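Lab notebook, design round three. We kept the backbone fixed and only want residue identities now. Task for the bench partner: fill in a sequence for the structure below.
Input C-alpha cells:
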C-alpha cells in the first residue's frame, strides 16, 4: 500500500474524485489480500466462497447461493467449489430437501485455512489504515456504512 498517491498518467493538478479514491484503495487492498492468501493456495473467489459456507446454515450453502454472493455465473462458482473440494476445504453433501441438489459444507481444514487467510488479510488492512487514528477509522467506517446503506440499487447515470 506504499508508493505514489497518484496513478500513472494522472496529471498532478487533477484531484481524484471520491469514487476514484475508493476504487484505487479497493484495488490495492484486493491485490495485497490476494498476495497474502496465495501462499495458502487460495484466490480471492475461493476465500469469499469459504466465507459464504461459513455463514451458511447447518444444511450447507447451495451452489447457486455461492454464485450469487460471488457475483459470478453458476459455472464459475462450480469451478471455485471444485477447487475447494479438491483441496479438502469443502465437501458436497446431498441436499436433504431435494435429492437432485447438493449443499456445500466447509470442512475442518477449510475452517483452519480460512482463519489463516482472515488473519493475513487483517494484517494487510491494519497496515493500510495505520495512518488513521482510531477516531478517524471509526468515522470512515460510519461514513462508508452510510453510503453502503443508501446504495440499495446500482447507480445509473442520469
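Proposed sequence:
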Amino acid at each position: 500500500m506504499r508508493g505514489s498517491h497518484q496513478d500513472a498518467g494522472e496529471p498532478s493538478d487533477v484531484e481524484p474524485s471520491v469514487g476514484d479514491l475508493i476504487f484505487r484503495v479497493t484495488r490495492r487492498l484486493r491485490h495485497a489480500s490476494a498476495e497474502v492468501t496465495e501462499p495458502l493456495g487460495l484466490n480471492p473467489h475461493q476465500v469469499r466462497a469459504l466465507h459464504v459456507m461459513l455463514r451458511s446454515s447447518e444444511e450447507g450453502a447451495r451452489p447457486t447461493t455461492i454464485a450469487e454472493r460471488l457475483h459470478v455465473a453458476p459455472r464459475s462458482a462450480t469451478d471455485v467449489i471444485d477447487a475447494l473440494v479438491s483441496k479438502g476445504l469443502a465437501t458436497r453433501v446431498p441436499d436433504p430437501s431435494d435429492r437432485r441438489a447438493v449443499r456445500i459444507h466447509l470442512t475442518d481444514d477449510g475452517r483452519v485455512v480460512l482463519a489463516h487467510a482472515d488473519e493475513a488479510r487483517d494484517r494487510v488492512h491494519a497496515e493500510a489504515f495505520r495512518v488513521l487514528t482510531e477516531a478517524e477509522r471509526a468515522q470512515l467506517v460510519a461514513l462508508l456504512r452510510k453510503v453502503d446503506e443508501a446504495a440499495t440499487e446500482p447507480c445509473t447515470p442520469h
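Keep this in mind before ordering anything: The chain has one domain: 18-149.
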